[in-house]
Amino acid sequence: MKTRRKGLIVALVIALAVMLLAGAFALLTSTRTIHSSGRIKSVNVDVYIDPDCLITHPGITYADLDPSTSNVTTVYIKNNGNQNMKLNMTTDDWSPANSTDYLSLTWDQENYVLSAGANCTAQLTLTVTSAPQGTEFGFDINIIGTEQV
What we know:
It is built from 1 helix and 7 strands; from the N terminus they run αβββββββ. It has one helix at about 1-25; strands spanning about 45-50, 70-80, 85-95, 105, 115, 120-130, 140-145.
């Protein structure tokens, strides 16, 4: 009889717990959904060979260069992002490592602010000082667009 009574008490406790939980979930709830939208900021600089900015620039191959001369290459820079950006240029990975002793690259768009979706013409000028004849070289040109606030 005691075992039956314990069983009945356990059953009542479980039933009471179930009712309390069911009551907690039966509380009134209200939800209001509001729509949100936006745009992720982006800067996306690209370099092209044509003024319409349709053909991405594959790279510059210089012909034979004479010492004490400059070679000007025209490229077209486009801001394919949605924020204005400031343009900068750097170079790296010079080969041979001492190429910078007789070669330098400059351009005419340093710190230029390019509007979102706009493009501009840039002149890259490679200047050769006295270099050993027959010297082959290579380097990377980095065109950098930084968000302009």
